[in-house]
Write a structure and sequence with these properties.
Layout (H helix, E strand, L loop, with lengths): L1 E9 L2 H4 L3 H20 L3 E6 L3 E6 L4 E6 L6 E10 L2 H8 L10 E6 L7
Antiparallel strand pairs: 1-5, 1-6, 2-5, 3-4
Amino acid sequence: MKKFMMIFIGADYGELGLSPEEIQERMQKWFTWHEKMASQDIVVSGEALKPEISTISGKDKVVTDNVAVESKELIGGFYVIKAANLDEAKVVAQDFPDYELGSSVQIQEVMEFDNF
């Protein structure tokens, strides 16, 4: 099995104006999706991310601090899953709970390096 990272891109629930009840419903969808993947033994890891970002870039190592929502594309979290191939990983991503909020999933295969 190969590893694939699913990166979740969308709006911060707080910025969408969701009520506490709506957020709870949304989180239940996430828990259900996680449980489905866990029961299939395909979850390697996964985390939700806070919206604060520090970016260090360039040869001068310039630091830019901001809140992710200012960048218009919040990376809200990720999962690393096991799948036979990219097509199989795409099937897993079909259950992502936030498509209806206009969010998206970026899927990339994790590069495996042989022992040197």
